[in-house]
Amino acid sequence: MKTYRKELWFNVAARRAFINITPQIEDCIVESGIKEGLVLVNAMHITASVFINDDESGLHHDYDIWLEKLAPHEPVSQYRHNVGEDNADAHMKRQIMGREVVVALTEGRLDFGTWERIFYGEFDGRRRKRVLVKIIGE
Ligand code: ZN
Question: How many domains does the chain have?
Fold first, then answer.
């Protein structure tokens, strides 16, 4: 069995953003030389997510509104976590949107369902953060 590991770095200028990272994951697959197996992609920070859904800007806007209703950023004083920081909402948004995805790798390609794409969800940006890509297989 072959293994491959890579860290992708992001530095999002805004506090929150959704980024389609499918092309970077496809580059990792090519670099790995692995054709059949599993691809794991996870955020390496507790205020960011990796998730799968549609690459449709209206949906991303809707996610942002929905997440702000569930865990509003302001007022930051409403959260006990925010003693010396202001990102309690980002921890909660990360919890809802998830830590990682696993996708089957078939004939050298991500074996997606219809319209599926992989996204990095940033909830406390403006600093460098990592995503881990691990591929195992043959
Ligand atoms: Zn925190």
Answer: 1
- List the chain pLDDT tens, one digit each, 138 residues: 999 999 999 999 999 999 999 999 999 999 999 999 999 999 999 999 999 999 999 999 999 999 999 999 999 999 999 999 999 999 999 999 999 999 999 999 999 999 999 999 999 999 999 999 999 999
Please, which residues have CB within 8 angstroms of residue 65's CB and are 6 or more apart in sequence? none
How many angstroms is it from 49 CA to the middle of ligand 1? Answer: 14
What CATH number is given to the structural domain containing 121? 2.60.120.460
Tell me whether residue 74 is in a domain: no
What pTM does this model have? 0.96
Residue 11, helix vs strand vs coil: strand
- 119 in a structural domain: yes
CA-atom Rg of the chain in angstroms? 16
Distance 87 CA to ligand 1 centre (A): 5
Question: Per the domain annotation, does 73 fall within a domain?
Answer: no
Two tokens at 15? Answer: 């506090």
| Ligand 1 midpoint to CA 51 (Å) | 20
